[in-house]
Amino acid sequence: MCGSVLLATSYLPTSVVAGSAITQEDTGPGGTYARLAELGYKPVHFREEIRSRMPSKEEAAQLNISAGTPVVLICRTAFADEGRPVEINEMTLDAASYILEYDFDA
Question: How much of the chain is in helix, strand and coil states, percent to nearest 5?
Fold first, then answer.
């Protein structure tokens, strides 16, 4: 059985995306962020909250990992101009498959 190394769910404001290509299973070239830009809501800032824990039985099965392999949870919020949140993406990652690297000024 082939498993994933990432589970992800995005939440977008209906008032922004209703009736647009972003609501389709295949959002087209450039994906969600390209469609948001076309709608006038290009993400310009992101915030991520990161946690880790042991996987649920369902997550372990979907990721094809043992119950003893930790997962990393990332909740990313994308903001358009003026601080408007335009997407919340909840990701569950197989901790053994990722190196998270961040680079930022002090």
Answer: 25, 30, 40
In a domain, 30, yes or no: no
Average pLDDT over the chain, rounded to an integer: 91
Model-level pTM? 0.85
Distance CA 7, CA 55 (A): 12
Q: Is residue 85 part of a domain?
A: yes
In this structure, are strands 6-11 and 85-94 parallel, antiparallel, or unpaired? Answer: antiparallel
Domain that holds residue 78: 6-12+43-97
CATH code: domain of residue 67: 3.40.1410.10
For residues 42 and 36, is the Cβ–Cβ distance under 8 A?
yes
Say which residues have a Cβ less than 8 Å from residue 62's Cβ, sequence separation at least 6: 3, 4, 7
Provide the number of structural domains found in the chain: 1
Q: Is the per-residue pLDDT at 80 higher than 90?
A: yes
